[in-house]
């Protein structure tokens, strides 16, 4: 797998941003937008290797996060604007986008505010914004996710179900992330505070969901304690060209659980063969790992 890093970053209107490019050149790249508190080094390397096998992957530290300078924006729309700036600086006319958690919210804003730049969107473990009805976030989540430091038990609680299989997959993923050489600094307390401010003030996109005409894959683990999977269902019902996929015995970090990594790879890398995602208007989009992503 080809991998390179701009040692000095790229200069944008939001500051100098650290960035890494993985995978072969050619075709439309996949832009990754990271979770709350995450840096570009917090993607599971097994996930990166799988997805970058056949296409170019772009990951970066947003302004004020990790190795990047600048200031963390106080809005989700501001985070989307930074992503658009990265695409422009790289000289790209269009990208596919995979946003995880907070990155999924930024991906939705990106697709709405810069529709000419986004061909297809994957919203993973995320939300369209406030949803009053249905299951709510686990009451322990706000405390655990905002601790000054998170240990392995915190991540297992936030990201994975408590089953033996899911816990083992979670421990393996966390070990792979920790074992990476040359990792940048963790997200600072100030950056954390700004991200919390952005999330808490976000009105969501449900009032604009009908504008999302592009193909969207909405995916999550069925047992997400951070962002209940019901919110993925709500988004899939409101975006005109969305498809919902939920995975059993999986949580917020479902895309790092072994076979699900391969499923995400298959779905993202077959983009050139997919003209559209069929809109789902019922829970029929829920599938088992026997046929991941309906392929």
From TrEMBL:
Q: Which Gene3D superfamilies match?
A: alpha/beta hydrolase
Instruction: Give the signal peptide range.
Output: none
The family database entries (InterPro entries) matched by this protein are listed as: AB_hydrolase, AB_hydrolase_1, AB_hydrolase_fold
**Pfam families assigned to the protein according to its UniProt record, in alphabetical order:** Abhydrolase_1 (PF00561)
List each copy of the AB hydrolase-1 domain by range: 29-258
Q: What is this protein called?
A: AB hydrolase-1 domain-containing protein
Natural source organism: Agrobacterium genomosp. 2 str. CFBP 5494
